[in-house]
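Supplementary Note 3. Input sequence used for the single-chain structure prediction.
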Amino acid sequence: YGGDVMRLYEAAEHRLEGPQGILARLAACQAYSDPVAKKSFLLVMFAVRSGAWQVEDLERLKVAIDYHIMRIALRSGMVEVQDPALARRLRNREVVSAEVDNAVREAVREACDRLVAASGQQVFDVDNILWMIGRNCCHYDHDPICGDNACWRMEACSLLQGIAYDCPGRCPLDGVCLGSRHADYRALWETTLYTHYY
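The predicted structure, written as discrete structure tokens, is reproduced below.
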């Protein structure tokens, strides 16, 4: 494509899916070869939101599953870890195989698809809210801001800057998120895998 992403978009005839679609063409590039297509979906979201692209099959767009969204899905109970050995590995932040990582991320993507459908919200908005909660309220650098943990970072919270939310000093999911009520859910972490996908 001569380094021009617009050529890729045109060659895909403005379509996400199919053997000649945007996702397949991006997947041929190593940086976008993630089987769960996190960077690909994120690129499409940015291009569509900026007005640069008008995608024909936009209903095929998915939440871009990264470690922040994975953490929210696991801790909230959106995705239930059935395997006790995997739950232990996630709580201990042990490295997992690419296959396990992909399976967990696929389950999170399916849960996010259901959330988008049930909420009636656009995939852009669901992705943005979950990501901002993961970056602010449920970040890997500090204890989750839920339950007994009052927010101490309202001044720097990009969630509050990004959406209209009258924050009571707790995560918007506090009370409905299983992690806000149960320590075993709160102790779950995203998969640990060192890859170029993120």
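The chain is about 45% helix and 0% strand. The chain has two domains: 5-60, 67-186.
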